[in-house]
From TrEMBL, chain A:
GO terms, molecular function: transferase activity
Keywords: Transferase
InterPro entries: 3-oxoacid_CoA-transf_A (IPR012792), CoA_trans_fam_I (IPR004165), NagB/RpiA_transferase-like (IPR037171)
Coiled coil ranges: none
Superkingdom, taxonomy of origin: Bacteria
Name this protein carries in UniProt: CoA transferase subunit A
Species name: Niabella pedocola
UniProtKB/TrEMBL annotation, chain B:
Family in the record: Belongs to the 3-oxoacid CoA-transferase subunit B family.
Organism annotation: Niabella pedocola
Transmembrane segments: none
Upper lineage: Bacteria, Pseudomonadati, Bacteroidota, Chitinophagia, Chitinophagales
PANTHER family: KETOACID-COENZYME A TRANSFERASE, SUCCINYL-COA:3-KETOACID COENZYME A TRANSFERASE SUBUNIT B-RELATED
Molecular function in Gene Ontology: transferase activity
SUPFAM superfamilies: NagB/RpiA/CoA transferase-like
Protein's name in the database: CoA transferase subunit B
Keywords (A to Z) from UniProt: Transferase
Length: 229, 219
């Protein structure tokens, strides 16, 4: 078993233009910042990114938007990004908005081998357009399909050489469900240790889902909304 | 006198009960956390993956890995816990959250809510609002009764794109506390000094007024 790669550039090898990527994080919290940076240094284009948000203008997925490397975003909330808005209004970017819980569950289902499922979210709204409706216990539900990706890119706090991951605080968010749903999942971690050094009772994402792992250095971890007492 | 945003939050806080797990939306709902009654314990859920959300951190103590669903830096209370987004919405969808408080642009007298999109303006997305309104057992909307130009936001039918249908049970506005029932909006309480006639004039949807309507009492 050899999952460890040296850096982000090596980790993203094999990603091609036109592919679908899942990118973990919520806002700027828990995003795989080194892999995103490495993607900006490639000529990859026409990417479809499944990510809860689209970063800000100069950080996170906003960096890929600036370089016009993204063709389509699949997200639940995409505010806080002027370049995103410009590309959307000029028809340069496709956007599919999905209720946040449905997005998370579609990723979970994709990783769990469940092709589709019913949820109540979005019934009676424009999200329901074209979707099968079925009532359970007299309550209408929408049929939603699983999501998978060519590559999923996630970020964790600690990881080991088997790919077992532990997230810090709220930085787990979409990283865990997305880690399960990539055909190839890349994990970047703040601290990489030999297998056996993490407590097996405290692992959030079992290593079976992870194909490549590396330790990033100098995480910026930008704060989007600094609020203090 | 119509209620301030803080007073709307204060009135909603009276609906909290000991042991409640509560999801507070962005805006006025967030202020509810400041008025949790003495002697009861309420656990705040943040849908990005936390139970037991605490206040903003002290100056200099902000942690970029610890944020709420509004992407603000926060803290966690003793007994709090972190989890991933799929788990978070499973507890929402599964009906384990006792109360959801959120804002709205419009509510209809059948309990429909519009809160996420204004056609012609930039569409930012629904975030978790559709999941929350579709699943919560108990939803309170915190909102202004009318728009800045005096148009009612309590309607027969919403004019803006919907967030959910037939899901809102209670509304607290700057003018009144109302239940949403099969008969329409049922007026329960009015803001101090605001008359039933004022509320009728500000409500475009069906409004039911039964007996004497007491004034809102804020502790």
């Amino acid at each position: 078993m050899n999952k460890v790669v040296q850096n982000a550039k090596e980790a993203i090898a094999g990603i091609e233009s036109g592919m679908t990527l899942m990118v973990g994080g919520f806002g700027l919290c828990g995003i795989p910042e080194h892999c995103i940076h490495a993607l900006t240094e490639t000529e990859l284009k026409e990417l479809t990114c499944i990510s809860n948000n689209a970063g800000v203008d100069d950080f996170g997925l906003g960096l890929l938007l600036q370089k016009k490397q993204i063709k389509k975003m699949i997200s639940s909330y995409v505010g806080e990004n002027a370049e995103f808005e410009r590309q959307l209004l000029h028809g340069e970017l496709e956007v599919e908005l999905i209720p946040q819980g449905t997005l998370a569950e579609r990723c979970r289902a994709g990783g769990a081998g469940i092709p589709a499922f019913y949820v109540p979210a979005g019934y009676g709204t424009e999200v329901a357009e074209g979707k099968e409706v079925r009532a359970f216990n007299d309550k209408p539900h929408l049929l939603e399909y699983a999501l998978t990706a060519d590559f999923a890119i996630v970020k964790a706090w600690k990881g080991d050489t088997h790919g077992n991951l532990i997230y810090k605080e709220t930085a787990g968010n979409f990283n865990h469900p997305m880690a399960t749903a990539g055909r190839i999942t890349i994990a970047e971690v703040e601290e990489l240790v030999p297998a056996g050094q993490l407590n097996p009772m405290q692992i959030h994402t079992p290593g079976v889902y992870i194909k490549r792992i590396f330790q990033g250095t100098h995480y910026e971890k930008r704060i989007e909304q600094l609020t203090e007492q | 006198m119509s209620l301030t945003k803080q007073q709307i939050a204060q009135r909603i806080a009276q609906e909290l009960k000991d042991g409640y797990y509560v999801n507070l939306g962005i805006g006025i709902p967030t202020l509810v956390a400041n008025y949790i009654p003495e002697g009861i314990e309420v656990v705040l859920q943040s849908e990005n993956g936390m139970l037991g959300m605490g206040p903003f951190p002290k100056k200099g103590a902000a942690d970029p890995d610890l944020i709420n669903a509004g992407k603000q830096t926060v803290t966690i209370r003793p007994g709090g816990v972190f989890f991933d987004s799929a788990t978070s919405f499973a507890m929402i969808r599964g009906g384990h959250i006792d109360l959801t408080v959120l804002g709205a642009f419009e509510v209809s007298d059948t309990g429909d809510i519009a809160s996420w999109k204004i056609p012609g303006k930039m569409v930012k997305g629904m975030g978790g609002a559709m999941d929350l309104v579709a699943a919560a057992k108990n939803i309170i909307v915190a909102m202004q009764h009318t728009s800045k130009d005096g148009q009612s936001k309590l309607l027969t039918q919403c004019t803006l794109p919907l967030t959910g249908v037939k899901c809102i049970k209670k509304i607290v506005t700057d003018l009144a506390v109302l239940d949403v029932t099969d008969e329409g909006f049922v007026l329960l309480e009015r803001a101090p000094g605001v008359s039933v006639e004022d509320i009728k004039a500000a409500t475009a949807g069906r409004l039911v007024v039964k007996g004497n309507i007491p004034e809102i009492v804020l502790a």
